[in-house]
Amino acid sequence: MATMYVRYKQVYALNPEKSKILKLNKTGLTVGLMSCFGLCIIANFQKCILYYIHVVGACLTFGVGAIYMLVQTILSYLMQPEVHSKDIFWIRLTLLLWCSSSIVSMFVSSVVLYSGLYGTNLVQKLHWDSQEKGYTAHIISTVSEWSLAFSFLSFFLTYIRDFQKISLRAVVSLHGQTLRNTPQSFVADDQALLIAGSI
After folding, report:
1. Cβ-count burial of 155 within 10 angstroms (0-12 exposed, 13-18 middle, 19+ buried)?
2. Terminal-to-terminal C-alpha distance of the chain
3. Of residues 4, 81, 74, 79, the one with CA closest to residue 37
4. What was the pLDDT predicted at 111?
5. pLDDT tens, position by position, 24-44
6. How confident is the model at residue 153 (pLDDT cuts 50, 70, 90)?
7. Of 4, 112, 122, 136, whose CB is crowded by the most CB atoms within 10 A?
């Protein structure tokens, strides 16, 4: 989430007057946060226990995450050559195509695997033997899922050079010496200093 927020602030700062880019940037942030929420669902609901909730989380993470990648690729296209080089656009487009092909491969192999051709209750199956029916579809699905995850990681690695050109800082302004709501806590800003080591 932090990476997506920093990217949002960076694009906003680089294009303060371009309304098309700013709207697309807000869309990207919203879609990116939805993808992060899907990752929380995947992490908290295991496939073998609550399969359908896990699938909803996977669709949010990877499906909506692919839309995030698409939005960021379009932003890279719109910001070239003033802000981005053409190379970074082509790299992000390639990673988006990798992601898309992994999604299609994972979807098709999963539909084939869970269609009932290879038996029922495959969701609970954790260990596979290469001689079993459905093993090939399972392997294709698993490899596609890992390929999809690596395409996401690779896409976020393209932000490294962008993030090297910015710095962030958080400003803390205290409005009192305590966090309680007492009359003494409402003091002037000049008395509200944070002293290191006073914890």
Report:
1. buried
2. 29
3. 4
4. 82
5. 999 999 999 999 999 888 888
6. very high
7. 4
